[in-house]
Amino acid sequence: MRRLRGPAAVLAPALLLTGCAQSVDPIERLGKKAAEGVRPHATAPGRDYRHWGLTRPLARPPAPPDRPPALSPSSPARPLAGHPAAPAPPPPVIDHVPTRDPVVFLTYDDGAERDPRFVDMVRELRLPVTLFLTDSIAAPGYRHFARLRALGAGIGNHTLDHRAPAGLPYAGQRAEICGQQDRLRARLGVRPRLFRPPYGSYDPTTLRAAADCGISAVVLWRTALTPAGLTRGLGPGDIVLVDPDESTDVPLRERTVRVLRAAQERGLTVGRLEDYL
Q1: How far apart are CA 168 and CA 179, in angstroms?
Q2: Chain-wide mean pLDDT for the chain?
Q3: Alpha helices, DSSP H only, in the chain?
C-alpha cells in the first residue's frame, strides 16, 4: 500500500485465464473449476517447509465455522408493493474477526509486487491469502493474480486508482469502488464482497457507496508488518496487512515468513479470511 503522510496514514476462486483452449497449465484447469463453483484443493507441498524459512510446519487451520460470524447488519425488510426499496445497509468496518480459533488472516494491498516465487510459496505451504487489488497498479500483472486466485487466494477491491476516499463526493467514491468491481469481474472472473479503502481512509459516504456496489464488509487491519516489524502482537482473529515495503529489497515471500514465524510463536496459524466473513 502506498502511504499518505500525516493524519491520513493509518492489506475461492473463480478465474478465466486467456489462452488456447488446449492449454495444459494445471493452474488454468484449477481456475476453470473455480469458475464452475468448485473450490480448488491445494496441491501437496513440493518442498520442505524449511525451504521457505520456517522451523516447523505450518499448522492446519481448524475447520471454518458453518456460518460466518454475524458482522453485517441484518437485511432490511422487503418493501411493500408500490413503495421504493430501502437502501442497502452500510457494510461493517472490521480489523479483526471475533473468533476463538487460533488463526490470523494475511492480506496484501495494491498489486505492485508480482514475485513468481510467492506463487510457489502459496502453493507449497497451502497458504491462504487475500489480495486487495487496485487496477491502476495491478493491471499489468492480472495473469499473476489469476494464478494466485486459482490456488484459492481471495480477491478484494482496493479501488481503481488508489485515491483516499474520505471527503470525496458520493459519485466519485462509487465510481472508484464499482468501477473496480467491474474490472475484477472482467479480468479475474470475480466480483468481490470485501473492500479495503486505500490508506484505511473512509467516511459514511464510503460505506454508502460500498454497499451500493455490493460490498459486504470493509476490511482494515489490526496489525501490519512494516520494515520495523509488526506494529503490535498477534492474537486470534487478527487481520494482518503485509505492507508493501518501499524502503528495502526484502522479497514479499520473506516478509510473509516473518509474519508466519510470529504467528507460530503465539500458537497461531493462518486461516482463510473469506471463510469467516
Answers
A1: 15
A2: 82
A3: 26-35, 116-125, 135-138, 142-150, 170-188, 204-212, 252-265
Residue with cell 479475474: 188
Q: Is 262 helix (H, G, I), strand (E, B) or coil?
A: helix
Selection from 3, 13, 52, 58 nearest residue 154 by Cα: 13
d(CA 277, CA 274): 5
Crossing angle (nearest 10°) for helices 116-125 and 252-265: 30
In which band, very low, low, confident or very high, does the pLDDT at 64 lie, cut at 50, 70 and 90? confident
**Cα(44)–Cα(47) distance, rounded to whole angstroms?**
9
pLDDT for the residue numbered 9: 41
As a whole number of angstroms, the distance between CA 165 and CA 180 comes to 14
For every residue of 95-106, DSSP letters joined together read SB----SSEEEE
Coil, helix or strand for 14? Answer: coil
Is 77 a residue whose pLDDT tops 60? no
pTM score over 0.90: no
Scanning 101-141, the segments in alpha helix (DSSP H) are 116-125, 135-138
pLDDT in tens, 246-263: 666 889 999 999 999 999
SS3 state of residue 239 = strand
Q: Name residue 250's amino acid.
A: V
The full set of domain ranges for the chain reads 90-275
Q: At what angle do helices 26-35 and 142-150 cross, to 10 degrees?
A: 70
Which amino acid, one-letter code, is at 103? V
Assigned C-alpha cell, 109: 494491498
Which CATH code fits 90-275?
Answer: 3.20.20.370
Residues 6+ apart with CB under 8 A from 249: none
